[in-house]
From TrEMBL:
Any one GO MF annotation of this record: lyase activity
Name this protein carries in UniProt: 2-methylisocitrate lyase
Residues that span the membrane, as ranges: none
The keyword Cytoplasm appears for this protein: no
Alphabetical UniProt keywords: Lyase
Amino acid sequence: MIRMTQNHILRDRALAFRSRHIPGRPLVLPNAWDATSARIVEDAGAAAVATTSAGLAWALGAADGDRLDRDRALGAVARIAEVVRVPVTADIESGYARGSVGIGDTIRAVIAAGVVGVNIEDALYGSGEGPLRPVAEQAERLAAAREAADAAGVSLFVNARIDTFLRGAGGVDLTLERAAAFLAAGADGIFVPGVVDPVTVKALAEGIDAPLNVMAGPGAPPVAELAALGVARVSIGSGISQAVHAVVRRAARELLSAGTYESLAGGLDYGELNALLGSGR
């Protein structure tokens, strides 16, 4: 009975998460990397929690870029899903698997962790074969993800990440070509990091027949402007994690050199943070 209730909750969260991808009224996701950051993001009013693969890998002592194994990554993601009540979507890099069969295994593990969305990227790391995975191969991996999710009865939102701009591998035309193939394979949305230029974003939003996700940060147009261009989802990747780690370095250097503590000013109150973690689900 408990298991059936959990499955029902997960299915409801998946549908709720899917419904929030509206062009012109984007889902805004401040990315988290551990249970504490996830609770803070949820408490700030986020409608969902998205993980950052880079921030998560760094928190586990690993580098980003397909260097973290599935069990360690999804163990951390499961802890995030355990402490929040809102839907969770996970950045699973290339899927923590070499082939499409392994992608299916990852998706089953993702759903078991309580997650209702994934990002799957098409970049290749360390292979020497080029910056992007061939279209047909990536489409096969996305199809395997879709099949595994559908078999589990969860409307998992598969966000196909296209790294044409981030890796300097192509422009609008190539991005649209890859997007069409990935949507035909079963993806639900398209994530194009590395581009915030309004003209380009508008061309992508108009040319992609699915919700468009862009990655914003300092120097990018505000969310309202991205919304007006037709964007359906705005995330900030590892931005918050990088900012937090900058505070760690600044405070450590100040303490070890000047022997002072001014970098610690403005931190969250101990009692407030402790209460926040104590009020999790």
